[in-house]
From TrEMBL:
Signal peptide: none annotated. Keywords: Flavoprotein, FMN, NADP, Nucleotide-binding, Oxidoreductase, RNA-binding, tRNA processing, tRNA-binding. Catalyzes the synthesis of 5,6-dihydrouridine (D), a modified base found in the D-loop of most tRNAs, via the reduction of the C5-C6 double bond in target uridines. Residues 14-317 form the DUS-like FMN-binding domain. The active site is at residue 104. Its EC number is 1.3.1.-. This is tRNA-dihydrouridine synthase. It comes from the Bacteria.
Amino acid sequence: MKIGDVQLESPFVLAPLAGVSDSPFRQLAREQGAAAVYTEMVSSDGLIRGNKMTMDYIAFEPHERPIGVQLFGSDPAVMADATRVLSELPPEQRPDLIDINMGCPVRKVVTRNAGAALLQDVPLIERIVSAMAAASDLPVTAKIRLGWDGQSRNVVDVARALEGAGAKAVAIHARTRAEKFEGHAHWDMIAAAKQAVGIPVIGNGDVRTPADAVRMLEQTGCDGVMLGRAAFGDPWVFKRILALAERGEELAPPTAEERLQAGVRHLGMLVKTAGESVAAKEMRKHVAWYIKGLPHSHKVREQVNRTRSAAEMVELLNLYLSELAAHGLDRFAPEPSPPTGGGGASG
Ligand SMILES: Cc1cc2nc3c(=O)[nH]c(=O)nc-3n(C[C@H](O)[C@H](O)[C@H](O)COP(=O)(O)O)c2cc1C
């Protein structure tokens, strides 16, 4: 798949995930074969004001490339200015893609006319995309939903409008805003949008296993597949997908040892980028996902939630690993079961 001039090694990419797709997690996903990654969504207002937290969110390591920064906002002039800010960053900080969030269902965002609210105003979408495309030579893309609700599933119109206004790809979470994360994603609508446009279409929603990823490509004809929840605590999912898609091979899931070591590495990287106390807090959810399905993980999760420093967390994880090894369980590799539901999700 090629997005503008950006060539992706495979069709399988990591979704933008607020509170989850931090730089260490993106690095782990790229190492395991994700063809592209995205930052968490960041505010276009925050970006043009140079807000410190926003600037931290858009920082990345060179080996994360290709990387997209995802912006949310609704004012074409502000979105264009934010695009300019990103384009004018020094080359090593400049992202490869600029994505627009048109899927976030949360009230705080839609009441500001951003996220999924944009789907109700196709002319505004066109103004935003053309202003952004004119402001930069970086490819502008969008991540959308099927529409606002069951009565207004305008995904095909939106995809055409995006293409007409200069977007270089569209990712589709195959649910409406009203559906949030409930029920099943409607992959048939991804197929309908793919028929309607020439730009790459990236399908998204309910890809839980490598077989699902291959099936989405086959059933919808889409160019790319975006994974969110299936990658939580399981960046190896990309390696398993590639093995299945390219060689028809079913790889074993990661062992307890691999999962715990990744947790420790993730934490170490997060300490470097976010500092000790933020890292210890942010890692709680990641650790819960890394250990999910392992023996006594509930007890360990409670202990992890009580830790106050990264060092204490590392100690706990190493102790857990040695206990598992003592019982010959460090090679244990349960089939990962991705979290369901969106939690506080933003797309
Ligand atoms: C915790 C969480 C955070 C999310 N944050 C974002 C976000 O910042 N931007 C976005 O476009 N979508 C966001 N999403 C939506 C996902 O990118 C994706 O569209 C959705 O989870 C469906 O894909 P999946 O079934 O593979 O998880 C988020 C979802 C979750 C669960």
